[in-house]
Amino acid sequence: MALLAPSILSANFGNLDKDLDMINSSEADWFHIDIMDGVFVPNISFGFPVLEAINKKAKKIKDAHLMIINPDQYFQTFKKLGIDYITIHYEACIHLNRTIQEIKNLNMKAGVALSPHTNTNLLEDIIDDLDLVLVMSVNPGFGGQKFIENTYRKIASCKDLIIRKNSKALIQVDGGVCLENAKKLTDSGADVLVAGSCIFNAKDPLQMIKDLKISTK
Description:
- InterPro entries: Aldolase_TIM, Ribul_P_3_epim, Ribul_P_3_epim-like, RibuloseP-bd_barrel.
- It catalyses: D-ribulose 5-phosphate = D-xylulose 5-phosphate.
- One of its GO terms (biological process) is pentose catabolic process.
- It comes from Apibacter mensalis.
- The chain is α/β, with parallel strands linked by helices.
- The chain has a single domain, classed as TIM Barrel, CATH 3.20.20.
- The chain is built from eight helices and eight strands.
- The chain has helices at residues 16-25, 48-57, 75-80, 96-105, 151-164, 182-188, 197-200, 205-215, and strands at residues 3-6, 30-36, 61-67, 85-89, 109-114, 132-136, 170-174, 192-195.
- It is globular, with a radius of gyration of 16 Å.
- The model has no long low-confidence stretch (mean pLDDT 95).
C-alpha cells in the first residue's frame, strides 16, 4: 500500500485548522507542503508564518516541495519549522550534490524533484544520496492540472535506476493523482502519492483518503 501525502496547497486557507485536523485524523501518512517563489514557477504560495502555523498543528511527517531558486539559504529555517523531508528541483540547483549534503547535515531527508521534461538518467550520479525522487506528473506551479500520461514510463525508469544503483530512495508522484490512476502509479513503482484537488474537493475527504489508500493495495 502506498504512502499518501495530501497537498496543503489545495486546502481551504479560510479554515486551515479544520483541514489540518482532518489530515491528522485520517489514514494519510504525510503532509505535502508546496513552497513557490514566483520566480522558479509563475505562482506564489505561502511563506514561513503559514508554515509555522502548519507545524504547530500537523502531527505527521511534513514533506516540503521547494519550487524556488537558491533554496539553500532557507534550509535552517525549514529545519526550525519541523520539516522532515526537503525536496528541491534538479532544474533549480547548480551544485546539486552540495545542496543535498546541506540538507542531510541538518538531519532532514533529502529529495530531488524532476519536472516533466527532465530525464531520470540525470540522477545517475546522485541517486545513492537521495531519500526521495519526486516525479512531477504536471508542470510545477499550479494545482488542478491534467495528468501527463508519460509519467508511468518515467516512474518505471526511475525505479530501474534505484534498483540498479541499490538506492533506498522512495519515488513520489505529484500532480493529477486520483482514484482512477492511483493503482497504475503504484504498479509502475511509485511509493508516495501526493493528492490535492482529489481529496479537498471530495464530498467526504476522509473517505477519499481511505479509498485512495485501499486502491493501491
